[in-house]
From TrEMBL:
Residues 2-334 form the FAD-binding domain. Pfam families: FAD_binding_3 (PF01494), Rng_hyd_C (PF21274). The keyword Flavoprotein applies. This is FAD-dependent oxidoreductase. InterPro entries: FAD-bd (IPR002938), FAD/NAD-bd_sf (IPR036188), RIFMO-like (IPR050641).
Length: 475
C-alpha cells in the first residue's frame, strides 16, 4: 500500500511527489503518457516559483537551462518597465521550456525516491475510511492512503469524484505550434510588429535554427479541441492576419487552446484532492498556469505529509482548499481581464490605453506585477503583523541566507533574539538563532512553504501558535 498516489506526471504532480518524499512519504506517480511530451506548453517560471525552487535547493539546476528576463511587460503584454522595490531577491522571470521543467522535476522526484510509472492511465477510483483504490486501464488495482489528481484540465480524477467545475466556456481559440519559416528573420520581425499593433494574440518568436513558436487566432471553435490543427490551418490564419504565411513548414508540433475559465467547487473530497489544472483552468495570458500548479503542490505537500505522518493538527489538510482556491479565483479573474484587453475591438482597446496610462503610476504597475508573479499572495491567518500570512523573501543572514536553510522542507523559527525555543517541535521545526539586516522584526515562524505563521518575541505567544501549524508537542 502506498501512502499517496499522484495521478499526473506534469510539473504539479512531480513537484508534489518531491515535497512528499522530503517528509518520507511513500509516493507513486502515475502518468498515462508512455513518453514525455514534446509540446512546450509553458515557457517560464515567475518570481514566486523561482523562490520555491530556491527554497528547495533546485534553483541552480533551473538557472543552468534557463534565461533571465526582466519582470515587466507581462500584464496583457502592456510594455512597462519592471516596478521598483518588488519584494523579492529574485528580480527576474526565468525563461525555460516546460519540457525542461518537467525533466528537472522528474529527476528530482526520482532522486528523492518517488516511483514514476509511465503508460499508466487511471480510469476508476473508490475510497473508504482507510484509503483509496485506484483502477488502471489495464485492470490493475492499486491501494493508497490518499490520492491527488494532478491530471490536467480534463481531469479524470475530478470527473470520477463528481466535483463541479463551473465557469465560462471557450469563446475564442488560438493556434500554437513550433515550425520553420522560409523568410528572413528581419521580415518576420517587421510583419509581426505591424500585426501586433492591433492583434495582440498574434506572434512568431524565434527558437533558433529557423524554428519559430507561432501563435495566431483560430478561425472559430473546433468541435474537438483535443484534435491538433493542421499546418494548412496555420497557413490560412497567418495569411488572414499577416497577409503572408511566412512559408511555414516542417512543424515540430501543433496544438490549439481556448480561453475557458473554470474552478473546481472543492479541492478535497475525503481522501482525494485536486491540484494544478485539475482544480482550475484559464487562458495562458500572463504565463501563470504552470506556476499556479507548482505553488499548489508547494502548499499541499507538507500538509498532506503531516497527515500521513500523524502529526497534522485538526484542519491543516483542509487549509489547502481554504488557501489555494481563492488564489486560483484571483488568477482566473486577472486572466479574464487580460483576454479582454487583448481584444482588437474598439472598446477593449480604449480600456487597454487607459490601463497603460495608469500603469505609469508605480503603485499600479507593482500591484499588477505582484499578481502575475504571485509575490503578493497573502493567506488569511487572522489579525496580526503585516508579514503574517505572506511568504518571506530570501534575506541575508550573518551566516548565509534564509532560503539555504529551507531545503529540507521543515518549519523554521528565525530567532534574532536568541531567547526563544521550539522544544517539543524540534522534529518538525528548525530553530535558527541568527540576525539579518533585512528583517526588522525580532523573530518569525515560517511554515515549510515559507509563509509567515507568527511574528514576535514572546515565548508564550509562540507556544500558542506552534500547535496550529505543527500539531502537538512531543516529549
Amino acid at each position: 500500500m502506498f501512502d499517496v498516489i499522484v495521478a499526473g506526471g506534469g510539473p504539479t504532480g512531480l513537484m508534489l511527489a518531491s515535497e512528499l518524499r522530503l517528509q518520507g512519504v511513500h509516493v507513486l506517480v502515475l502518468e498515462k503518457e508512455a513518453e514525455p511530451t514534446g509540446y512546450v506548453r509553458a515557457l517560464g517560471l515567475h518570481v514566486r516559483s523561482i523562490e520555491v525552487m530556491d527554497q528547495r535547493g533546485l534553483l541552480g539546476r533551473f538557472l543552468e537551462h534557463g534565461r533571465q528576463h526582466p519582470v515587466g511587460g507581462f500584464f496583457a503584454g502592456i510594455d512597462k518597465p519592471a516596478p521598483d522595490r518588488l519584494d523579492t531577491a529574485h528580480y527576474y522571470v526565468l525563461g525555460i521550456p516546460q519540457t525542461t521543467t518537467d525533466r528537472l522535476l522528474a529527476e528530482r522526484a526520482t532522486e528523492l525516491g518517488a516511483e514514476i510509472r509511465r503508460g499508466c492511465e487511471l480510469v476508476g477510483l473508490s475510497q473508504d475510511d482507510h484509503g483509496v483504490t485506484a483502477e488502471l486501464a489495464d485492470g490493475t488495482r492499486l491501494r493508497s492512503r490518499y490520492l491527488v489528481g494532478c491530471d490536467g484540465g480534463r481531469s479524470t480524477v475530478r470527473k470520477l469524484l463528481g466535483v463541479g467545475f463551473p465557469g465560462e466556456p471557450t469563446r475564442v481559440e488560438t493556434l500554437l505550434g513550433e515550425m520553420e519559416v522560409a523568410v528572413p528573420p528581419e521580415t518576420v520581425a517587421t510583419v509581426v510588429a505591424e500585426v501586433r499593433k492591433t492583434h495582440k494574440r498574434f506572434g512568431l518568436g524565434p527558437f533558433g535554427g529557423g524554428v519559430y513558436r507561432v501563435v495566431v487566432p483560430a478561425e472559430g471553435l473546433a468541435e474537438d479541441r483535443s484534435v491538433p490543427p493542421t499546418l494548412e490551418e496555420f497557413k490560412r490564419q497567418l495569411r488572414v492576419f499577416a497577409g503572408t504565411d511566412f512559408g511555414v513548414h516542417s512543424p515540430r508540433w501543433l496544438s490549439r487552446f481556448g480561453d475557458a475559465t473554470r474552478l473546481a467547487e472543492r479541492y478535497r473530497t475525503g481522501r482525494v484532492l485536486l491540484a494544478g489544472d485539475a482544480a482550475h483552468t484559464h487562458p495562458p495570458t500572463g504565463g501563470q498556469g504552470l506556476n499556479l500548479g507548482i505553488q499548489d503542490a508547494f502548499n499541499l505537500g507538507w500538509k498532506l505529509a503531516a497527515e500521513v505522518n500523524g502529526w497534522a493538527p485538526e484542519g491543516l489538510l483542509d487549509s489547502y482548499h481554504a488557501e489555494r482556491r481563492p488564489v486560483a479565483a484571483d488568477v482566473l479573474n486577472n486572466t479574464r481581464a487580460q483576454m479582454e484587453l487583448l481584444s482588437p475591438e474598439p472598446g477593449p482597446r480604449s480600456v487597454r490605453r487607459l490601463l497603460s496610462e495608469l500603469m505609469d503610476f508605480e503603485e499600479v504597475n507593482r500591484y499588477l506585477i505582484e499578481k502575475l508573479t504571485a509575490v503578493g499572495v497573502r493567506y488569511d491567518f487572522g489579525e496580526g503583523h503585516e508579514l503574517l500570512g505572506r511568504r518571506l523573501r530570501d534575506v541575508g543572514l550573518k551566516r548565509g541566507r534564509l532560503y539555504e536553510l529551507m531545503h529540507g522542507g521543515r518549519g523554521l523559527l528565525l530567532d534574532q533574539t536568541g531567547r526563544l525555543s521550539v522544544a517539543g517541535w524540534a522534529d518538525r521545526v528548525d530553530h535558527v538563532a541568527d540576525v539579518s539586516e533585512d528583517l526588522d522584526v525580532p523573530a518569525v515562524l515560517l511554515r515549510p512553504d515559507g509563509h509567515v505563521a507568527w511574528v514576535g518575541d514572546d515565548q508564550r505567544d509562540l507556544l500558542d501558535r506552534l500547535p496550529r501549524w505543527f500539531g502537538a508537542a512531543v516529549g
